[in-house]
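Continuing from the previous page of notes. For each protein in this section, the sequence appears first, followed by its structure tokens. Read the first protein now.
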Amino acid sequence: MKKSKRKMSNIEKKYMVVGFMFLLPAIVTYLIFAVIPFFDSFVLSFQEWGGFGPRTFIGINNYVQAFRDRTFVLAIRNSVYLGVVSAFFSVLIGVFMAWLLLYVGRKWGGFFRTILFSPSMIPAIITAFIFAFVFEPEIGVLNNVLGVLGLKSLQHAWLTNKATALNCILFVSAWKQIGLTMVLCFAGMQGIDSSLIESARLDGASDFQIFRRIILPLTMSFVQLSTIFAVMSGLKIYDTVVALTNGGPAKSTIVMPLWILQNSFSFNNYGYGSAMSMIFVLIVLIGMIITKKLIRGSSYE
């Protein structure tokens, strides 16, 4: 026997209309500044346009040119490297720090969480300028510390050396993400029922066994979210690269957002830039899907 659908009352209809009216400005803004430009950029990726005059349809030539462009292929490689490796280290260190903070008292715990989270609150461009001074070859902090320790053989021009420039950017990206991972995972660890941990301790489990068997599996959903944020931050990194190396030396630290912007606004090749943008969006989506598939959480009743 089919159940009859309940008709909405006049009050419910009124609330629905009012709710929709409140959402309407946000929906219109999102459509104008996000959805419509995205689809316009998708159409533009199949066209040639220099910013003025009519657009010319050229099919998939822009996409073919992108994969023949050695600089763009290098930019993809660098962006994926920064996204994956920085996410690995930032999440690994952030989870470990969150676990250690569980054993710190409430008073000092709040202090250390604030200090450790502060790098995530600093604008990326300011962070880059700080580390530009750290890596400066003559008066930089890093080379001076190495000199004091008697390790002058390890001193480098860190940001102008192809062997070290990209890893310097990697370090800055990971350093900035650690605090966010720590806060998210610490919040998840605090939500675990203390009776589970107490029962494990009564059974003779060590702190590390409790972390590996109970705490970590039950906070994997927070680890997943932190990893997604870290991967996306690494893939989309732009201002840090511009401030530290501007893609140099010899384009060895070029990344996708930087190369896309240079082609679009410096070379006035908007169709080609749009095609690279679509490839970039696809890579970011693939990264998010892989992360969600690889990292999954557990639950308890």
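Done with the first. The second protein uses the same format. Note its length before scrolling.
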Amino acid sequence: MTDKDITDLEKQIAELTTTLNEARSKLTPVPVPDYRFQTLEGKVSLLDLFGGRDVLLAIHNMGQGCRYCTLWADGFNGLLPHLESTMAVVLLSRDPPALQRDFAGSRNWRFRLASHGGGDYISEQTVMSGVDNMPGAVVYKRSDDRVFRWSSAVFGPGDLYCSMWNLLGLAGLGGDAWTPQFRYWTRPEQLDDGGENVID
């Protein structure tokens, strides 16, 4: 394998990605119910989550117990102002609203948050048939008071939605060679402050 072979492969991937996005732009939207969610401010509907916009990106996050979902959300958080310049964005999980907010605060996430509570929404709007808490994203569009599912994607190691996989690939590492962690601090053998009351 030469540098030219790699460049040719990258060109093919870019062309296929363009083809994929063109195919998505031709999808037929499917009407969906106006689901209900819980937030710290109370109950909201799917229509409410649009915040007056015509397009909504709903990020399906498995909750604070998933290191991979945390990795994706950490990355999307940096893109949030760019995303919100063109569409509404919400991070959905089954965690209760207070737990969502505490965990988001610990990660410095700026997402709007809502809880589906593991109910009808996530079982009917899953990104993978037969799996009701799969990480991914769904794009919805609205027309007046009706909501339509436009497209969706599954998140997983090696996907198109987390740049970490491509950066690992530059180093010759596959997705199976690395697992994300919530934090990367390693306790030294000896702590200069005495080492009492340390929370890993």
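What the second structure shows: Strands lie at 30-32, 36-39, 42-45, 55-60, 88-93, 112-115, 136-143, 146-154. The radius of gyration is 19 Å. We return to this in next week's lecture.
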